[in-house]
Design a protein that fits this description.
The chain is an all-alpha fold. It has a domain at about 45-170. About 60% of the residues lie in helices and about 0% in strands. It is built from seven helices and no strands. The chain has helices at about 5-10, 20-25, 45-85, 100-115, 120-135, 140-145, 150-170. Helix 3 runs antiparallel to helix 4, helix 3 packs antiparallel against helix 7 (about 150-170) and helix 5 runs antiparallel to helix 7 (about 150-170). The longest helix is centred in the middle third of the chain and has 41 residues, at about 45-85. The protein is flat. The two termini are about 15 Å apart.
């Protein structure tokens, strides 16, 4: 990992801007396990040990699926928020710039959601993804830029959808990037 060096920053370098390695290390947690494919020989093991290990495995998988579901929900909220922020009316009457990437990122999220939804999150699918897909069907950045009524309609609908999404997104101390 590269970071600005004292030489590169000159008199702007302040060691206090960088946490010590112990603090950084605490922020990392990585676990992995290798699993055999196929049947695992359990001959000679007591049934209670097998049941205990199977339950631990189910719990790990359930936690991983929940984390993935929450990550997808969070990512969805971010792309909807970006669209809304770009389209919402400003109090001073000025227009915000709508970047092509704002619409492209939302379309990509919607197009790939079903293949990435490992949790089968029907609640989020019904309340956020499907309404967004209907709203954005056939919509391009150019159409939004050149049609004020379409821009207003999408902003109003996106606001309602993002409110629904925020009810389903649980913010934890963990940061996803």
């Amino acid at each position: 990992m590269s970071r600005p060096s004292p030489e590169g920053l000159g008199d702007q370098f302040d060691r206090g801007d960088y946490p010590n390695s112990d603090t950084v290390e605490i922020g990392f947690d990585f676990n992995f396990s290798l699993r055999e494919v196929g049947s695992i020989p359990t001959k000679g093991l007591p049934d209670w040990i097998i049941a205990l290990e199977l339950e631990k495995e189910r719990e790990k998988r359930a936690a991983a699926i929940t984390e993935w579901r929450d990550t997808l929900r969070f990512a969805g909220q971010k792309v909807v928020d970006a669209l809304f922020e770009a389209l919402k009316p400003q109090p001073d009457g000025k227009r915000r710039k709508l970047f092509d990437s704002t619409v492209t990122n939302l379309q990509e999220y919607l197009d790939t959601y079903t293949t990435r939804d490992l949790a089968g999150d029907t609640e989020y699918q019904k309340t956020v993804v499907e309404p967004l897909q209907k709203l954005m069907h056939g919509v391009t950045t150019t159409k939004i830029r050149h049609n004020e009524s379409l821009k207003q309609y999408i902003a109003e609908q996106a606001d309602g959808i993002r409110k629904n999404a925020s009810k389903l997104v649980q913010v934890t101390g963990r940061k996803f990037r």
